Amino acid sequence: MAPPAVAAGQGGRQPQQQQEGGFGKTITGIIRMAVFWYFASKFFSPKRAPTDPSGAPAPLISNLFQKNQPLDMWVYLSEHEKFNDFGREESLVWHETNIPYASWGAGSTRNLALKYDPSEGLKHNGSLYAHVFFAQSGYSPDPNDPEYQPQAAFGRTYAVVKYLPKSRADKRRSLLGSSPDSIEDPVASKVADDAQNDSEDDGPVEWVSYLKPNITINLVADFTQYSKNGIPPNIAPYLSVDPITGNYYPTVFFNEFWLLRDKLIQMNETVTELVLNLEVGPISMTKWQLFLQIDQSFQIHRSYGSMVDGEGDELKRVFLEGNPYLLGITMAVSLLHSVFDFFAFKNDIQFWNKNKSMEGLSAKSVVVSFISQLIVFLYLLDNDTSWMILGSSGVGCIIEFWKIGKAMHIEIDRTGRIPMLRFRDRDSYAQNKTKEYDDIAMKYLSYVLFLLVAGSSVYSLMYERHKSWYSWILSSLTSCVYMFGFIMMCPQLFINYKLKSVAHMPWRQMTYKFLNTIIDDLFAFVIKMPTLHRLSVFRDDIIFLIYLYQKWAYPVDKKRVNEFGFGGEDDTAVVSAEVDAAAKEEEKKTN
């Protein structure tokens, strides 16, 4: 099979944008797919088909080899997919004898570190295949050998080179042009400028060849007797059946589960010597099926847009490089994170739905929160984010706008040619000290925020590259939302300080969010994520700690209106009046 054509020039790989992963959702999806596969294999596997009109069951097929049976192995490396040159000794790179089949004892796992000099063809987008053959000890895998027995030898071919689509030229450029102070690479700038002249996404897809440095050969310990016409669909593609006896050979599985993308070696002229790590060993039926099911789950998530490329590798990296105890704790609290997130969302909606007074609450913070959410949504839309993340962000924008309707009066002004939305403060907000304190907080906050946004935007314009002016505005505003988002919470802290009360705060929703923040702190140490997002997690801790201090410093005043618009003493008085009226009415009836 001819490899895809690749352009001669090999550009550097652009750094992939890291997106917020959703670790708990990924774990949940894997478990769900594993359970689904189990029940599907139990209840929906093909039934045994009769071989004759009398209804007799189909014959059973079994493994041609026995447990602990000694096997010999030959590994050949060739640039051709078809191999039959067993007499060429330079192609034989590894030979092992007396490997016990389906045994986990001493000598069942063998390893070899092989130095391999790539040919010029391999450097220029060539192919390389590993042809692995097994045979019973004393037998030959060569069909031309007089001692060859078809039922005693089997093999499989493995593609050592993997082709991945080449990253397209970076469309970003310096909006101010060439600058002596810019850290931009002139070559990269020229490539980006040339790419701007081309129509976007035109031309054939270019491919780059990558070599897999690890070749793990696993023999599946499978001794199941299958019905000839009822092999499970998840096993049938890997089962090789002998046409003479009807029984199947041991399954050869090339294990790539722990082979991460960043471990692949890009082939070009600079590669002069390669080190291939070869390993052969047994694998249980359960573990083999689990690896297949997890990979299938990743593919399904990618096809539905719930997982981006590289996120599966990051999840595997957690298992490879993470502390086992910390990993176990992380998996346990990931479920709690989902539960707390649900309750925080529920109580947030419930609070604003039942809220009757804006006394003590910052209406301007609600508006700023909506603007921040809208900026993040437009930024994700500009960077071609998956539709699932876009949908989640879009729903967040709608909810934040709904909160504005609960915090302020929204009216439609039809006096002009184009209807416009007008926002008017509620009486409970405008007729007390809350509006005055909110205006003071936002006044001084706007000065600080303007300087921070302006400084960050100017730095980004001078030292970073962007696709367009629109992209620069969105990226600058989004960076400010991540870096200075905690400032948006300061007006509410100032209002609490001036009113000397926190009775108006939605403490249930904030408690669940605080618990989620603690869990996010744990994920910040375990999962690889952008630095800005990691800082945004810890900045929330400071704000919540200040809220907790205010709750301790300002005891709840029963005379003050609570978060549902009712005062404690007023409620007691109303209830007492209703009880007295009912008692008097009952007394009149008795008399």
From TrEMBL:
<feature type="region of interest" description="Disordered">
    <location>
        <begin position="172"/>
        <end position="203"/>
    </location>
</feature>
<feature type="transmembrane region" description="Helical">
    <location>
        <begin position="325"/>
        <end position="345"/>
    </location>
</feature>
<dbReference type="GO" id="GO:0012505">
    <property type="term" value="C:endomembrane system"/>
</dbReference>
<keyword id="KW-0472">Membrane</keyword>
<comment type="similarity">
    <text>Belongs to the CLPTM1 family.</text>
</comment>
<feature type="transmembrane region" description="Helical">
    <location>
        <begin position="365"/>
        <end position="381"/>
    </location>
</feature>
<dbReference type="GO" id="GO:0016020">
    <property type="term" value="C:membrane"/>
</dbReference>
<dbReference type="Pfam" id="PF05602">
    <property type="entry name" value="CLPTM1"/>
</dbReference>
<keyword id="KW-1133">Transmembrane helix</keyword>
<keyword id="KW-0812">Transmembrane</keyword>
<feature type="region of interest" description="Disordered">
    <location>
        <begin position="1"/>
        <end position="22"/>
    </location>
</feature>
<feature type="transmembrane region" description="Helical">
    <location>
        <begin position="469"/>
        <end position="495"/>
    </location>
</feature>
<protein>
    <recommendedName>
        <fullName>Cleft lip and palate transmembrane protein</fullName>
    </recommendedName>
</protein>
<feature type="transmembrane region" description="Helical">
    <location>
        <begin position="444"/>
        <end position="463"/>
    </location>
</feature>
<dbReference type="InterPro" id="IPR008429">
    <property type="entry name" value="CLPTM1"/>
</dbReference>
<feature type="transmembrane region" description="Helical">
    <location>
        <begin position="387"/>
        <end position="404"/>
    </location>
</feature>
